[in-house]
Amino acid sequence: MKEESYTFTDMESLSQMAASMVTTLAAGTIGVNGIFSIALSGGDTPVRLFALLGSEYSHSVQWRHVHVFWVDERCVSKDSGQSNFKRAYDSWLSRVPIPASNIHRIKGEMEPEIGALQYEDAMRDFFGGREIPSFDLIILGVGEDGHTASLFPGTSSLEDKERLAIPVYADKHKSWRITLTLPVLNNADHILFLVTGASKAEILSNIFDPEYRRRYPAGLIQPAHGTMTWFIDEDAAKNLSSKGTASAAERYRKAFP
């Protein structure tokens, strides 16, 4: 596994570089394989990235060859303000010429177990019955407790090696969610973590410490054959040793030309 981290001065510069990475990777993968698969995270951090993909980067990709999935979803309707699907759809997917059949949302309005099973079927259909899907790119975030997707510390969901997607009850939020499992996340070709805000600084320093890393779900993301890239803003990175924020974009371009 190749792992790189880059620190950016603010959310805007981080999001601009993330949009560049997504569109460059998509265009290159489509050029080779004719198709590009991506799984999206929820939360506030990727919202600006989605807006950029739906505006100034909207002409950078042949969207008819892109297939979009989600790493997790709250068990709400697709029109709910809490829906991860809605956030991406309103700011990005509704603004580019991507076929509706290429948008593979998790149906959070269904009973959680049924929704998870249906999502598993959708992934198996798309990936040709492959035992574990291999997404071209998965975008993830990190919660203040170290969770990623809807995989929370100390829960049995971290031990599931058989399922592709499972229902989980988030005690902190008192709500049901559906999430991809660790085997699926760790089978991606590329993982991109987006982490912003001072509230993430302490947990991020723990995740970057080899002694504590595996205590947290985000620290269990270790792609079996792919690359993992961290895009972090200065506030979240304040407890990490820095290589210099001014050169972050240039270092990224050299590492991923």
CATH topology (fold) name: Rossmann fold
What is the terminal separation in angstroms? 18 Å
Mass-distribution shape: globular
Give the helix level as a range of percent: 25-40%
Give the count of structural domains.
1
Q: Tell me the structural class.
A: alpha/beta
- Output mean pLDDT: 93
Largest sheet: 6 strands, parallel
Order of neighbouring strands in the sheet with most strands: 1-9-8-5-2-3
CATH architecture: 3-Layer(aba) Sandwich
Cα-based radius of gyration, to the nearest Å: 17 Å
What's the CATH class label? Alpha Beta
Number of helices: 7
List SSEs in N-to-C order.
EHEHEEHHEEEHEHEH
% residues in beta strands: 15-25%
- Give the oligomeric state: single chain
Task: Write the topology of this structure.
Elements: E1 2-8, H1 11-33, E2 36-40, H2 47-53, E3 66-70, E4 72-74, H3 84-91, H4 112-126, E5 137-140, E6 165-170, E7 175-180, H5 182-185, E8 190-195, H6 201-207, E9 227-233, H7 248-255
Parallel strand pairs: 1-9, 2-3, 2-5, 5-8, 8-9
Antiparallel strand pairs: 4-7, 6-7
Helix pairs in contact: 1-2
Structural notes for this entry:
The protein has helices spanning 11-33, 47-53, 84-91, 112-126, 182-185, 201-207, 248-255; strands spanning 2-8, 36-40, 66-70, 72-74, 137-140, 165-170, 175-180, 190-195, 227-233. It is α/β, with parallel strands linked by helices and 257 residues long. It is built from 7 helices and 9 strands. The two termini are 18 Å apart. It is globular and about 45 Å long. The longest helix has 23 residues, at 11-33.
